[in-house]
């Protein structure tokens, strides 16, 4: 901070320079000052009348509330969850501590908020959408590898999910890929969900089990409409790929390969239980796939809306706009793919 004596000295030097024909702005620039600073010093008699930092905003969180939120973020219950998961879970318990942005801000202050991935998915042209507005209208399925203790040998996890609810309606682990096994899995899924003829469209990529003769004949027998990704397009089956990424990024995913088929199936069953009944899915406004599939999400989201309205009534200064949108997701969009209509001759040849 410049002292009063230094200010006097500066003004005297600039005054002498101006008397010698120099421009005041140039003289001030040489001293690292602006002409506005000199004008203020002259006007206020060298006293700095500028105001200090403005008062804290009215909606600033008190330190004790910040500490409470930090303790929740670090608690064993929420240590593995992000704010997008924590906020709705607290709302389900009738608790509102702060918004996601507030929690992320506190995480940044604690240096606990870091991105795990640096790469971004490539953008692709999107075909016309295929819309689902109820369960069991559109399914997606795929197969992923699970490592075994034998080099070069894998177990194969078959997974069928409902696009509207994100529920995994069928899951099994086998020792090899096969159209016969896939046909059995789809049959079990249709029987369990009581699927009628031409009720559901089943989307997949172009793998050999997906397009095998046995699989196509079974789909025709069940009245399931097949749908396939475009050739050489890796992200045309995004929902299943996203599900497999969730599966393999779970903290419980084993660090070591599976010893045998029984271990792989046991772990897959535990994951499906967590995914369907406990996981709050971001794509369906943070309700579980099981609740969404059975229609319970509507009441859950109504209760969350009530919690937010109550919190806003208590602290209206913390909201400049409406509260968070807790309305149910009414439509789920999958890219429209060419559906396969099998003729009788095609089915006979496949058989």
From TrEMBL:
Coiled-coil ranges (or none): none
InterPro entries noted in UniProt: Homeodomain-like_sf, Integrase_cat-core, RNaseH-like_sf, RNaseH_sf, Transpos_IS3, Transposase_IS3/IS150/IS904
Domain Integrase catalytic: 131-297
One GO molecular-function entry: nucleic acid binding
Region feature Disordered, mapped onto this chain: 46-65
Pfam families per the UniProt record, alphabetical: rve
PANTHER family in the record: TRANSPOSASE INSF FOR INSERTION SEQUENCE IS3B-RELATED (PTHR46889), TRANSPOSASE INSO FOR INSERTION SEQUENCE ELEMENT IS911B-RELATED (PTHR46889:SF4)
Protein name: Transposase
Organism for this UniProt entry: Desulfobacula toluolica (strain DSM 7467 / Tol2)
């Amino acid at each position: 901070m410049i002292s009063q004596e230094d200010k006097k000295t500066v003004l005297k030097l600039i005054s002498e320079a101006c008397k010698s024909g120099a421009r005041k702005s140039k003289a001030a620039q040489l001293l690292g000052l602006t002409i506005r600073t000199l004008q203020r010093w002259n006007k206020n008699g060298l006293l700095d009348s500028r105001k200090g930092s403005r008062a804290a905003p009215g909606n600033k969180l008190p330190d004790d509330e910040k500490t409470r939120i930090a303790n929740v973020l670090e608690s064993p219950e929420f240590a593995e969850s992000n704010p997008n998961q924590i906020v709705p879970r607290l709302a389900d318990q009738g608790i509102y501590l702060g918004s996601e942005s507030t929690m992320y801000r506190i995480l940044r202050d604690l240096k606990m908020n870091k991105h795990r991935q640096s790469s971004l998915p490539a953008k692709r042209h999107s075909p016309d959408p295929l819309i689902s507005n109820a369960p069991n209208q559109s399914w997606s399925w795929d197969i992923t590898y699970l490592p075994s203790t034998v080099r070069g040998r894998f177990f194969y996890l078959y997974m069928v999910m409902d696009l509207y609810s994100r529920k995994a309606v069928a899951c099994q682990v086998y020792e090899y890929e096969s159209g016969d096994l896939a046909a059995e899995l789809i049959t079990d899924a249709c029987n369990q969900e009581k699927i009628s003829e031409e009720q559901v469209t089943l989307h997949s990529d172009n793998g050999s089990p997906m397009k095998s003769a046995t699989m196509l004949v079974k789909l025709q027998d069940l009245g399931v409409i097949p749908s396939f990704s475009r050739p050489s397009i890796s992200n045309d089956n995004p929902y299943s790929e996203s599900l497999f990424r969730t599966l393999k990024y779970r903290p419980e995913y084993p660090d070591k390969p599976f010893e045998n088929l029984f271990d792989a199936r046991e772990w897959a069953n535990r994951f499906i239980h967590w995914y369907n009944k406990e996981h709050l899915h971001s794509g369906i406004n943070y309700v579980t796939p099981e609740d969404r599939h059975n229609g319970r999400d509507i009441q859950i989201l109504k209760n969350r809306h009530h919690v937010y309205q109550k919190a806003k009534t208590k602290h209206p200064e913390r909201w400049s706009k409406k509260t968070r949108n807790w309305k149910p997701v009414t439509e789920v969009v999958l890219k429209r793919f060419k559906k396969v209509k099998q003729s009788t001759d095609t089915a006979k040849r496949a058989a």
